[in-house]
Amino acid sequence: MWIPSAIFGILFTKQVLAHEDYSLRSGNSHHQHNDRSLQTEPTTRCSTPDLAPDERIKVDGEVRAWIGDRDPGRLVPEEDIQIQTYFHIIEGTDGKGSMSQENVQDSIDVLNAAFDGFEFVFNYDTDVSTTVNNAWRNLSYPSGSEDDMKATLRQGSCGALNVYSTSLSGGLLGWATFPNNCYYNTNYDGAVIGDQTFPGGSQSPYNEGDTLTHEVGHWLGLYHTFQGGCSGSGDSVDDTPAEASPNFGACNPNRDTCPQDAGNDPTDNFMDYSDDNCMDKFTFGQNVRMVAQWNLYRDMESQAPTIYVPCQGSSLVINLTTDTYATETAWTVKDDAGTTIASQPVMFSNSEYTTDVCLASDGECYDWKITDSFGDGICCTQGPGEYSLTLEGSVIKTGGEFGYEETYNFCTSVGCQDDPNFVKTRGNKNQNIARTCDYIAAGSRPWRLNKWCNKRYRGELIKDICCNTCGQILSA
After folding, report:
1. Distance (Å, rounded) from C-alpha 57 to C-alpha 55?
2. Confidence of residue 37 (pLDDT cuts 50, 70, 90)
3. Closest to 142 measured CA to CA, from 50, 214, 270
4. Do 12-298 and 314-411 share a fold?
5. How far from chain centre, in Å, is Cα 435?
6. Residue range 424-448, pLDDT digits in tens
7. Triad 51, 53, 59: Cα angle to 5°
8. Whole-prediction pTM value?
9. Which of 55, 91, 208, 215 is catalytic?
10. What is the 3-state secondary structure (H, E, C) of 230-295?
């Protein structure tokens, strides 16, 4: 279901959840984003990171623009999109987690069968690596172990699919990254799957290979079919009926959790949570969305170069290093009216982020607010997190130890302006002529105005007194 929404501006952020479950950290609630768990009816089974609200608005807007710029008959390419695939097998020293070449080939065959009739082909000469490392087993999301594993093993550009097969904690089945985040954090890009979800694995009823299909759907830009429930923009695809909650178990063709909307729940869709043996389709709308995001974010040959536009106002640079629990941290910059000017990108644990924000240079005041949902800030119980705010080249605020939240108010400098009280009179025959900044601006002979701006009045240059007016004249 797709309901258009307004498109907001975007900030330039270097680097880089999906429904939430809760687990305990030191006796208190702590968000744990899960993908497809082994429980019969868990509250959630997907740990693929949700986009932040403003980031999703941007992505959906760019997808709509990409689709709108093309003839409806040419939304999909005439030739297949070949995707280089790297399959990383993580074994323990006890031998658990091993996969044969046949297991890997069966996984790729299932993946290609799922996309049969669409444009994506995952190469059959898949590059396979096997690594024995106990530290990369029993992974949770997010974790430093996952970061280390990917930084060490990942291959290729944003157009290369990297699959990591290992054991996962908490009954998880897998997670993946969205395409728009790859540019900022290429090392983290890819799909993680449980090592018994391959065809013939022991993780029944999720052992027919469709965990990989589901996660690759995310990797190509799809949301869950139940995203947003019965309201809002749903999964941003107009031919998947709205669904209030995920389906577990067998595909029920009569299930209808949003009776006010047309169509029964898409329980046989790969982006639901049904058992592997009955999920068997993507829709045309989902395919178009995947093709759009492939061209926007993953196909390096089709991407237009980024044009850097220098800030014409006051530059605010936000440097932030996350702690071990990055998903607890959020920040905003708001103006005096309460309008959000900037907010945090999707962030991962123990990582550094730099965000550039261009603010108005007119004495406008802003509030920086950083929060931690657990109440221990970003330093120092769970790692040496910290942040700094740099305004117009000067550091104005640093921090990290703030409990639940911290707010800091700051103002930009007032730009070059004319002094409204400046009046210089001169006797001219029998009249006094008032020489003001407005008089200078109204002059008709630029060479005389240029000369006038460089004169002094009581020791001060007039071009400093009539700063705005003279600045325009002297730069003309």
Report:
1. 5
2. very low
3. 50
4. no
5. 55
6. 654 444 444 456 776 666 554 554 5
7. 65
8. 0.60
9. 215
10. CCCCCCCCCCCCCCCCCCCCCCCCCCCCCCCCCCCCCCCECCCCCCHHHCCECCHHHHHHHHHHHH
pLDDT computed for residue 11 by the predictor: 33
- Here the tokens at position 78 are 């005439």
Q: What are phi and psi of 153, to 5 degrees?
A: -105, -25
SS3 content of the chain, % helix, strand, coil (to 5): 25, 25, 50
Task: Mean pLDDT check: name the lowest of 108-122, 294-308, 366-380.
Answer: 294-308
What topology does CATH give the domain 12-298?
Answer: Collagenase (Catalytic Domain) (3.40.390)
Spatial separation of the C-alpha atoms in residues 186 and 429, rounded to whole Å: 76
- Domain residue ranges of the chain, discontinuous segments joined by +: 12-298, 314-411, 424-475
Q: At 87, is the pLDDT very low, low, confident or very high (cuts 50, 70, 90)?
A: very high
The Cα 475–Cα 458 span in angstroms is 24
Stretch (H or E) spanning 465: helix 462-465
pLDDT value of residue 241: 95
State the pLDDT at residue 95.
Answer: 95
Query: What's the topology of domain 314-411?
Result: Lipoxygenase-1 (2.60.60)
- CB count in 10 Å sphere of residue 307: 5
405 given a catalytic annotation: no
Tokens of 192: 């993680």
Cβ–Cβ < 8 Å for 276, 205: yes
Is it the case that residue 12 has pLDDT exceeding 60? no
Identify whether the C-beta of residue 238 lies closer than 8 Å to the C-beta of residue 260: no
pLDDT value at 305 more than 60: no
3 state DSSP class of 373: coil
Please report which helix (H) or strand (E) contains residue 434, including its range.
strand 431-435
First to last CA, the chain: 54
